[in-house]
Amino acid sequence: MASKARSGAKPQDSGFGSLSKDLLLEMHRLMVRSRALEERLIKIYKTGEAYFWIGGPGEEAFGVPLGLLVDKGQGHDHDWLHLHYRATPTLIAMGMPMIDSVRLIMNRATDVNTGGRNFSNHYCYPEWNVAPITSPIEVQYSVA
Q: Which of the ends of the chain has fewer CB neighbours closer than 10 A, N or C?
């Protein structure tokens, strides 16, 4: 039997501070979409529809909040991002269409990032100040 709350008792803190319920639900929705996309990309690779896959399932809880905080745009008045191949959740939270990842892994000419000429999860969005991704993370030090 559920116990009744005492009158005047304060609800327990959820641990999320001042984040609204709507924001928490949106973050959860984006995290689930990001994970579902990664799982689909892995399936595309394992069925032989793609030649290569590299990604970062498990990065959703970090990537989505980062993507929601980014001041996206082009030029020096906006944030610049030098991401790595595990940054799909960040870009999804910024508004990247999920189909962009599918076109990229399948090396389609319609891929807006590389025209089908690079590895999966190697994004480049100049209109959002997202620099081209390189596979070895250490190579990015000089770019950043």
A: N
